[in-house]
Automatic annotation (TrEMBL):
It comes from Paenibacillus silvestris. This is S-layer homology domain-containing protein. The keyword Signal applies. Residues 1-30 form the signal peptide. InterPro entries: SLH_dom (IPR001119).
Amino acid sequence: MKTKQRNKWISISLMVAMLLALLPPLTASAAPVLNITNLYVHTDPNPADPPGTEFKDSSVQRFTTNPITLSVDINGIPREQVSEIYYEITNVTTGITTPNRTNRPVVNSDNNNQITFQNVELTEGLNRIVIKFESTSSIPSLPGWAYFTPVSNITNLKINDDVLTDGGMFPSSGPYTNVNITGNANNAYQVNAIVNGTTYEASNFYNGIFTFLTNTGRNTDINLKPGDNQIQFISKNPTNYYTTSRQFKYDNGLGFAYNGNVRFMSEAASADKKLITEPTLESATEKDITFTADIKNSKGNITAGVLDYVYAEISVAGAASFRYTFADASISNVNGTLSGGGAITPVVSLKDNTSKYNTYQLSVSMPLSLSATTQQIEVKLVTSAGYPNTPTTYLFNYTNPALPYLMSVAQQFNPIGGPQFEVNLSEQGTSQINEFPAKLNIYTNANTQKVNVNIPGFTGNGDFDVTQTSPGIYRATVDLHDLTDGLTTMTVIPKDSAGTLNNAGKKVYSLNISGAPYVIVSNLYNGKVVKSKGELSCGAVGGPCITGKIVNLPPANYPLVKLSINDVDIPISKTTAPIGSLIDSNGNFTITETALNALFGGTASGTAFTSLFDADGKKSVKFSLYLKPGTEEILVTQSNYDVFVLSDYAPIIERLIPNVNLTPSTDGDTTGSYLTSSSVLQLAGTLRNAELNTEAILYLRKAPSGANMTPPTLVANGGKQEVSVDGKSYKIDFGTTTYTMDQYGDYVFEIVAKNNSGRTTSKMITITKQPVSYLLLQPNNFVKNADKIDQANVNTNFQTVIIQADGAESVVFGKVAAIQTEPGKFRYDVANLKAGKNTITFEITRGPNKVKGTFILMNQNTPIEGAQFRTTLTSKMSVFNGDLQLSFPKDTKVMRNDRTASEQFITADRKLVFGIANQDDGRVDKASEIAFVGTRFLQEPTGRFRPASKLFWVDAGEVDLSAADNNDTLKAALQGSGNLPIPSNPGPGEKNFFSRYIKSIMIPTQHGTMTLKYDSDIRTDSWKYVTVYQYGTFLDPSGSGNQYVGWKNIGGVVDAKSHTIKVPVETFGYFQVMYMDNSFNDVTSHDWARDYLDVLYSKGVMNNKTTGQFLPNDAITRGEFVTLLVKGFDIPLINDDTSYHTNDPTNPNFQGTFADVRRGLGLPNSSSLFDFMHIEAGARTGIVRGNSNGLFLPNNSISREDAAVMIARAANMKVNSDNVKSMANLKKQFTDADDSIMSTYAMPSVEAVVKAGYMDGIKNVPVEGQKKDTFSFDPKGNMTRAQASAIVYRVMQQNSKLPK
């Protein structure tokens, strides 16, 4: 028995030993290792490094565009800790170090030990890049090094004035054809756009602003596809470029597919890849894909209100297809099956149903076409007449990695005197190749015999042999040369031993070819400031010294390279015997006094170079590169560097010119002279190292006889720039106050700048004012039409015209004289413009001479941004095709907003101005208003609402009390009109919308009602989040009589069926429907009051207590509760017929009802939840009363029974006068209805508000055996904010302000 047991244990031991032998060996935990693989890696430069190991500047890669991709090998770092890896970049030139912890690394899907950082931004000069891993300690990599030469950036991208954001659908409104794309590209000389593989040049590019026209039918203009589009924008200057991309949907007003995604059928939706990027799907076994997309079916283009397209056909080219019919949501005409024989079963659902279109969500699994790498999915919509739309076509790649394949492609660098190194090309981004000839090493697996390389336009395209260069390493080498600059692709396809192409292993690389010659200057950058020429050193070589490299210029042309400093030529090559050059065979150069003397002999050349840096000031260093294909030298590029030698920071006046916005001008015959016809002068310029108006002073040296000799004052435009460490060197951009040139002739101005050391500099400018017959100043978009007549396109039934007619006595339109607002400037309102062409004539009188003029106002009469309409106030008004409606009681007029004044300016003749304004800066008429001024005022203040309608402007203008002083001004006040919100040439009494005086604004004599249409796409149930904002001038709610200007949430009653909202109107201003799309976390998570709280917050009835919290379960205060009741019952804050109109704080009637709620004083702890005016309104109407000491105690919490008393008063309820009966009734409902618990004074009110449905009880905790719920009222308990919201919600429902 023992022997058997022993044998059994021996057998088990042997089995365990065999299993252990199969396990992989355990290794010790390795220390984390980080290694940058695509940059030159070396420790910091150290003169003590042994020969052969020293830092090789020539090995440092040069970049000319941002951003770059960093490739990093890692070891010993768990996958879950990769997110703790970040990088730090030090600019060696400036000494500034910048860590970046937000740009997360991406792990290579095929190798967990490889990561990449995308979008790594370099700064100008030499960059030192260190990868770091922070765990218990910081572990850095060896530094990687990169030079960067800055490029022109691209900003402010817009499409038809909509900001061109990734993922958006544009244009946001019609017209849908001839869409314009605009943007800014400062410092560029060319801007291109690449769309669907085609490169386009900007249709217009001037002063840094570019425009691309689209879908014009011309080959030179961008052709956008309906649906998903991707555009890559490129801006270039002579030495570098910048690129940025946008993915968006183009809406052509018809039907199309968009948001296309693809993945393998077995994968989850999270694996979706955007089809706009032409992704690659790789698998040896997967043969089916899932395609998802949205489909837009437009309406009304064929038959009003009816869908344009009957069905959609969806297909994978060469594999399968089906048809979806929109009317009955049926699937038909199914062709093909899944790879396993399964049926194709599309799922299509209606997503949105609007008046303009329907959208549908599509998801379908379909087979791949196994005979092709490039797969095509097509979505085609067809009308009832059989006409298809422009089909939406998507492309993607399908590859099989089991066949021969590529591993990577790297660019090889062989610097002179330095070690060879490689830089991997990026498969995810765009790789730069900007030094030629370029050697590419293509690494493959062992199954690959050859690789086929194809680059459009490359003469070396073809097959390249793959050889084994070391164990396990297989490589082909390609030399690139003579490639066209710009973005291109390189397609690499592996071949097996039989010479068969394996398309499944194909890889396509995006290349940015920059073969144009350029210069890298290593020790200079624009704006560099030094105290002496000795600081312009080249490492250990003393200054002045200039060092760098010539790139991509054939060595035979090195002698043609020219250097100039402040336009003085400095030869750096000697073309006579003995021939020589400071540029070596690899393009490297170092220019010093010693090197120049050695090259040319003697000391003259070196001294000439050095002496240019002796004096203080700007040193413009310019390299010019030439080619000489024949007998003539051709300039190919120039690089400019402005360097400043400022031993004691001497003052420098860099620029002094007229401000073209206020003083349009042309250049005169001499430098620094300008010609203008404007009467208003404003100068602009740039100054260094002198304070405005103390150290730098503007003088008027000469002016025509009779002119004002007081010069304008210098005014800083922003703060100081490029400030040195000691603060003594800086740059200031400046303007001036305006100066009126009321005489014709020359005006000579001079700026004299002098610093503490006595160093002085000056600059002069001559402005010549020339006479003209007349100028049309407003609107500012007049152009000559085909008949050579001045024409301006407007979108209004009226137009204020301003004419400059110097020396004129009058300008008469018909029989009406224009108003002369200042010498030579006349203003006239052209009224009653009809739609279309309006020809206007006028006559200018100068003594015995008369000049007739004509212009055309073309009224577009279209209700889009910029539209205007002017009319007198009537009982019912509808403008902009009914988007805005106003109604007032009969006999409503307008008046000045001051009932206490002796003259109230009540009038039925004054006109209202309506406009549709720009969402960003509030301008209605861009041709007559100041740009961007309104932007900072019109910002939505909470960050929780977005626009849901057009931004409307309604205005009756402003009238100063002094207008009653004479008949002319009184007539203008009574018969005038409102004005534009930000007039660039304001007329009498016109002010910007944000700078008006509350008592001077004109308001309706009776309150009216405004009805606004809002976004028809907002769903019916979302009415609760819709409200109206008004921007205007309002009384301070503290009751001080002061005013505040800003947005006010005025709520509104929603008609969800008609998508309109109705609000009361007391004053005018901006109005816009808003949608609350960002609630509070403690509201959305509330178990029962979410809707109540959301609605009251959306309508401006209830506010949050802190910035990020609503705190619905907090006890509500007495002050906030009466405020909610005043708002909920729509109680006016002021009764103008009974209010005391006094601002005298000593007058008892001024102070208010309660001793602790004083007029004009902020209420402690109110947090904008309550204020004097709402509490005083509650007191005035009898809702609240104070205690025996005359106090209201607004910060005290309110009990539920006291809340009931306030509600009963606010609702004007009839309450039971018999407390005994009230208690008896309450006992039937609440278990705590008892004299000892509930106050006697509150019983009738509690009974009434419960019966009315405003309040209800609190459910009791059931006891054992209880079958029916019971409730208590908790009369002494604090009312919470959530409970209060439910009450006010019900109040508003019963008052028809909310739907029931």
